[in-house]
UniProtKB/TrEMBL annotation:
Source organism: Armillaria tabescens (Ringless honey mushroom)
Protein name: Uncharacterized protein
Superkingdom of the source species: Eukaryota
Length: 264
């Protein structure tokens, strides 16, 4: 490919080409980024910057701009990760829907630090745990205590107002706009709630500089398989897919399959 202007100094020509390459990278999903990263270390550096910008832009819909640096500092120091629809939007930037909430997956021993962060920065929160078995009866966050989560908290900041596409029901669209869901793992790994998600499309994690996708081929093809979402009353018996999760899959334009056998 010819340089944009052969009269430019060599260094200037190189950076002009690099800008074009970075522009192409910026539109790539997680599979495409992996292919670019395999070429050389310079591309890996560029991709890390792209991931950081994507993640910051996505989180800014839920965390006040003044709190972003402190948020990512706590995320890194506690070995936590971002999951849910926000992580999915970072992994698949071509999506035409907006994340409906910000899920923060945190190790069990980091709950104190996270609660202190949200309260110090003026976020209003509540623990959403009800039921004898520790079932979270919140209309949109039925995470099950005793299986993958030790505790779940819901936070909001009055200064953050975004319109998230959360479900097909208009009442949900207007009621829930800027939820931050803090999910405390029942182990000292933030990956426990992610691996225990209802569908493979939720099995993603994003940190301040890295992205992780357990099923990249399926996710980038807009396919979601059922995960083993354990029942707290009988951990050997999976829960049925919740109706709200089905709504979200439709909004996210994902094709759902109960089994990998359905793909054949």
């Amino acid at each position: 490919m010819p340089y944009p202007n052969p009269e430019y100094p060599a260094a200037r020509r190189w950076y002009a080409v690099e800008e074009l390459v970075e522009e192409a990278m910026a539109a790539a999903d997680v599979v495409g980024l992996g292919r670019w990263a395999s070429i050389n270390q310079r591309f890996q550096y560029l991709i890390q910057g792209i991931v950081q910008r994507r993640t910051k832009a996505a989180v800014a819909n839920f965390v006040h701009a003044d709190d972003l640096s402190a948020f990512f500092a706590v995320l890194d120091k506690t070995d936590s990760a971002i999951g849910g629809s926000t992580a999915l939007s970072v992994i698949t930037p071509h999506c035409n829907w907006k994340p409906h909430d910000l899920n923060v997956m945190a190790p069990q021993d980091s709950s104190g630090r996270w609660l202190a962060f949200f309260r110090h920065h003026g976020y209003q929160g509540q623990e959403i745990c009800l039921g004898e078995l520790g079932e979270y009866e919140h209309p949109r966050y039925p995470v099950l205590q005793g299986t993958v989560a030790h505790a779940v908290y819901l936070f909001q900041h009055d200064k953050i107002k975004v319109q998230g596409f959360t479900a097909l029901r208009e009442s949900i669209l207007t009621e829930f706009q800027n939820d931050i869901v803090l999910i405390i793992s029942n182990s000292n790994s933030c990956m426990t709630p992610i691996i225990g998600a209802q569908t493979t499309s939720q099995m993603n994690a994003v940190t301040s500089s890295h992205i992780y996708c357990l099923y990249p081929s399926l996710t980038t093809q807009s396919i979601a398989l059922r995960g083993y979402y354990a029942n707290p009353a009988d951990k050997y018996s999976p829960m049925a897919l919740l109706s709200d999760r089905r709504d979200q899959l439709r909004v996210q334009q994902l094709t759902y399959h109960e089994s990998s056998l359905d793909l054949n």
